TrEMBL record:
<dbReference type="Pfam" id="PF00550">
    <property type="entry name" value="PP-binding"/>
</dbReference>
<feature type="domain" description="Carrier">
    <location>
        <begin position="1"/>
        <end position="74"/>
    </location>
</feature>
<dbReference type="InterPro" id="IPR009081">
    <property type="entry name" value="PP-bd_ACP"/>
</dbReference>
<dbReference type="InterPro" id="IPR036736">
    <property type="entry name" value="ACP-like_sf"/>
</dbReference>
<protein>
    <submittedName>
        <fullName>Phosphopantetheine-binding protein</fullName>
    </submittedName>
</protein>
């Protein structure tokens, strides 16, 4: 889980207008400037790590905790 969280934060860093080191696991990332284009970019970046997640997977589960669980279960 720690590796997944670290990777996720590294991929999020250039996409949101918020310091990823201060994100709480329950923060809704849709409120951090992660619009639909950026979320599609994130899904593409995650696919480079071998994850198969869609825009809708991310949009329906918009917190760090949700995303880590989603990635750990793919």
């Amino acid at each position: 889980m720690t590796d997944t969280l670290s990777m996720l934060k590294a991929e999020l860093d250039p996409l949101i207008e918020h310091d990823v080191s201060t994100l709480a696991p329950s923060d809704n990332l849709l409120f951090m400037g992660l619009d639909s284009m950026r979320m599609m970019t994130l899904a593409e970046r995650l696919s480079r790590h071998g994850y198969s997640v869609s825009f809708m997977d991310l949009a329906e589960n918009p917190t760090l905790d949700d995303w880590v669980a989603l990635l750990d279960n793919t």
